[in-house]
Amino acid sequence: MTKPVRVRFAPSPTGYPHVGNIRTALFNWLFARHSSGRFVVRIEDTDVTRKVEGALEVILSGLKWLGLDWDEGPGVGGDYGPYFQSQRLSLYREAAERLIRQGNAYCCYCSSQRLKEMREEQARRKQPPGYDRRCRDLSEAERVQKEAKGITPVVRFKTPFEGRTRFNDLIWGEVVFEHGTIDDLVLLKSDGYPTYHLANVVDDHLMEISHVLRAEEWLSSTPRHLLMYQALGFEPPQFAHLPMILGADRAKLSKRHGSVSITEYREQGYLPETMVNFLALLGWSLDDKAEIFSLAELVANFSLERVSRTGAIFNRDKLNWMNGAYIRSLSLDDFTRRTLPFLENGLPAGVRRPLSIDYIGQVMPLIQERARTLAEVPELTAFFFTDELDYEPGLLIVKKMDRESSVQALEAVRQRLSPLQAFDTVSLEAVLRPLAAELELKTGQLFGTLRVAVTGRTVAPPLFETMSVLGKERSLERVGAALDKLRSL
Ligand code: GLU
Fold first, then answer.
1. pLDDT score at 257
2. Per the count of CB atoms within 10 A, which of 80, 238, 243, 452 is most buried?
3. Which residue minimizes the CA distance to atom 3 of ligand 1?
């Protein structure tokens, strides 16, 4: 009988979750949901010195933001808790003690000074780094002597000298490691906390994890873990190591490539739908064509067989394109609702708050097609909200025009628009198109000048729609202000 699928995301709260962490969480979640299994979140908080305040909250809120709900773990509990390793210390201690009793582990009394010198010596001799096993075979008398000196030991695993460990990775196929290349790793530190290796193995066993899906960087830890599973008499889970995420230069993705923390993407106005879709394609694909997947489609189609071994390139242009596509697919209401916090924060301080929802509802359709991120919206729309447009007067003079003809054009616009009753796009077009001909200007010239006058920019949403949202009074005031600017040139 095959074991029920139970997978875990096991973050360490030693920093904010980066794209790679979240991709791991997503693949575990998709695998669990696809196979009607359980998705467990376990907090690996045994590295007290590297703990970052607030990181745990950011990790959990990141998962929630993306819609990756967990069946067991912080906040929801479960039958295999506690789900914080710092609350399970006795379990690791028991395992370590058992390994010592069985002769699979030993106490090591070497000082950090001695280990440092040893590493330096190894580096000088160009030998691979690793503990030289001085304490591996201490006699009972030697041990007692060290204890009497009050030295608190660490516990190390007794890695066999000979042989090899092989396993079948679900993504990499058969993987073989010679034991000769594995040193006697620390299981329990002198502060009584376990290392990642011990706690990870004990918990994956006790929590009955069926599949371990984690980043490729852990691949070389797996033979160590397998040796521990064997020594403890535990049946190991299956392993799948997810391919590395690379920047455009094919180096491992890092801060150097721009934002890596998932919270930054949220702040920059990427939609959770985009992030899920985009991250899913970092290493997984359905075929070579399909790009846009809803969460439900991902769940239906996800499989480890379609996870590749080659590093996945994090392509920012693609992310922006995809986010634009998701923004366009939102209903206007939804787009407006999601954009609101960005407008509240991003519009100039002088704009009166609270913002009018009704007015925003008129502005949003004009930019939904163009926005690639929500954070871009305040900048794209600021001129709708503030009447103090700060632009170079020279922008008002478009191609093949001069100051005179620009003044003339805007004067004519003012004259024709002043008596207009209805200020909608149809009426505006009906007046302004013939006016261009009358002035012997190309429509592009007249509309270009007018666009700068009413928006302060050369590129903006459709002109007539913009003017009709601004209304007659504000539009004409802006034309007036533009004329003043031109005359002062
Ligand atoms: N705590 C480890 C991490 O932060 C977990 C690695 C694993 O999944 O075994 O990535």
1. 80
2. 452
3. 11
pLDDT score at 255: 79
**Cα(13) to centroid of ligand 1, in Å?**
10
Those residues whose C-beta lies under 8 Å from the C-beta of residue 290, and which sit 6 or more positions away, are none
User: How many alpha carbons fall within 13 Å on the CB side of residue 347?
Assistant: 21
Counting from 1 in the atom list of ligand 1, the atom nearest the Cα of 24 is: 8
CB of 214 within 6 A of ligand 1: the answer is yes
Ligand 1, atom 10, residue with closest C-alpha: 11
Separation CA 473–CA 470 (nearest Å)? 8
CATH class of the structural domain 1-74+243-329: alpha beta
Q: Which CATH number fits domain 393-487: 1.20.120.530, 1.10.10.350, 1.20.58.100, 1.20.120.1080?
A: 1.10.10.350
| Spans of the chain, pLDDT less than 70 | 1, 259
Q: Is residue 200 lining ligand 1, measured as CB closer than 6 Å?
A: yes
Distances (CA, A) of 115 to 108, 124, 135, 170: 11, 14, 12, 37
Class level of CATH domain 331-386: mainly alpha
The predicted pLDDT at position 250 comes to 87
Q: If you ran DSSP here, which 8-state letter would residue 194 be given?
A: B
Secondary structure of residue 17 in the 3-state scheme: coil
Instruction: Write down the architecture of domain 88-242 according to CATH.
Output: 3-Layer(aba) Sandwich (3.40)
The long-range contacts involving 478-481, CB below 8 angstroms and separated by at least 24 positions, are 478/387, 478/389, 478/453, 478/454, 479/410, 479/413, 479/414, 479/417, 479/450, 479/453, 479/454, 480/414, 481/389, 481/453
Look at residue 1 in the predicted model and tell me its pLDDT: 58
Find all residues with CB under 8 Å of 282, minimum gap 6, and list them.
19, 23, 245, 312, 314
41 lines ligand 1 (CB under 6 A): no
Q: How far is the CA of 461 from the centre of ligand 1 (A)?
A: 47
**Any ligand 1 atom below 6 A from CB of 197:** no
The residue ranges of every structural domain in the chain are 1-74+243-329, 88-242, 331-386, 393-487
pLDDT of amino acid 259: 64
CA distance 386 to 268: 23
Cβ 11 under 6 angstroms from ligand 1: yes
What does residue 425 show for φ and ψ, rounded to 5 degrees? Answer: -60, -40
Joined together, the tokens standing for residue 440 give 């012997």
Indicate if 442 belongs to the active site. Answer: no
| Cβ-based burial of 148 (10 A; exposed 0-12, middle 13-18, buried ≥19) | exposed
